[in-house]
Specification:
single chain, 332 residues, alpha+beta, Elongation Factor Tu (Ef-tu), domain 3, 7-stranded antiparallel sheet, 6-stranded antiparallel β-barrel, 3 helices, 31% strand
Length: 332
């Protein structure tokens, strides 16, 4: 066992070795058979050399016999014996060549079997399919491993992790894929940033919460343990608008009203309310950036009252400072 939880590994790096005793025995048997096949090839080649010489001698004797027969010196039965010997020598040469082909074919088969055995032996080496960090290890020394069994190692590719978060249904439906997120992890001084990678299509049966997955886009500076809890915010929308404290907005018969101060005179103006973020409310229409607003004690003022306003520091801001966010809970 070479790979441990938390190790950073390269693609192809050996993490564990399975027992290969039976495969090594097969390799030894195959090696002996290959040696035997090689010996058979050498023997067949030697026999071919002998058969070639014998055939040449038989053909030479036949040629001499035919000349003598033509001169009437040799008998007919002697020429027949020479012809038979030449034919037998040619047949023997053909047989030895076939034996060589059979021996070479056996060697090819055994070589193919050896490659298959070596391939099975290579499969006893458990290698990392990608570069990354080992998150978990179920492999144990001495344990039996079968094809299709539980994964032996879990690796985060390139060391990347993601956060599985839960969001209430009302807020979940507002979150778009790719939205920016900020996460606070206990033990880390600086927050992490990420994006919404996936919105799961099914709500949880209990609690009716939606689940989403966040891809972390910043380096935490240290390996984050899986299963750790995190709390964060997802930015669901960003656009330019005027924000006012909720204390500056009154409601009359369901209509939002804001008191404006022009030349020291109070005047009420109907306004359209948009999103809310904490104690701030978005003003879609009714107020322009830069106007003077009554922030507090508006119930004590009426239209036409002359006042001397006390200015506060930058209480009117745009929605981009800060954006509207939704809270979420999750774990890497």
């Amino acid at each position: 066992m070479l790979g441990e939880v938390g190790d950073d590994v390269a693609a192809g790096e050996i993490l564990a070795r399975l027992d290969d005793e039976s495969i090594r025995i097969e390799l030894d048997v195959n090696a002996a058979k290959l040696d035997r096949a090689q010996a058979a090839i050498l023997q067949a080649r030697a026999q071919i050399a002998d058969a070639t010489v014998a055939q040449e001698e038989a053909m030479s004797s036949l040629a001499r016999g035919r000349k003598l027969r033509e001169k009437g010196v040799a008998a007919a039965d002697s020429l027949e014996r020479l012809t038979y010997a030449a034919s037998r020598a040619a047949t023997t040469l053909d047989i030895q060549r076939q034996n060589l082909s059979l021996a070479e074919a056996d060697q090819t088969i055994l070589s193919t079997e050896r490659r298959e055995i070596e391939n099975r032996r290579m499969q006893t080496l458990v290698r990392a399919p990608v570069a990354g960090r080992i998150l978990s290890r179920s492999a144990k020394v001495g344990a039996l491993v079968e094809s299709g069994s539980t994964e032996l190692f879990s690796i985060a590719e390139a060391g990347e992790i993601e956060v599985a978060a839960e969001v209430p249904q009302m807020d979940f439906l507002k979150i778009p894929a790719g939205a920016a997120a900020t996460l606070a992890v206990p033990g880390l001084e600086t927050p992490l940033h990420g994006v919404v990678r996936l919105l799961e299509p099914a709500m949880q049966a209990t609690g009716r919460n939606g689940r989403l997955r966040l891809a972390i886009t910043t380096d935490a500076g240290k390996p984050l343990p899986t299963g750790a809890f995190a709390r964060g915010e997802v930015e669901v929308e960003r656009h330019g608008a005027v924000l006012l404290p909720t204390s500056a907005v009154e409601t009359n018969d369901g209509q939002a009203v804001i008191q404006i101060v022009e030349n020291g005179v109070v005047a009420s103006r109907a306004a359209t309310i948009g999103m809310r973020s904490g104690d701030l409310v978005e003003i879609v229409s009714g107020v322009r950036d830069g106007e003077t607003i009554v922030l507090k004690a508006g119930n004590f003022l009426a239209d036409g009252d002359r006042i001397r306003p006390v200015m506060t520091a930058n209480d009117s801001r745009t929605l981009s400072e800060p954006p509207l966010k939704l809270a979420l809970d999750g774990r890497p």
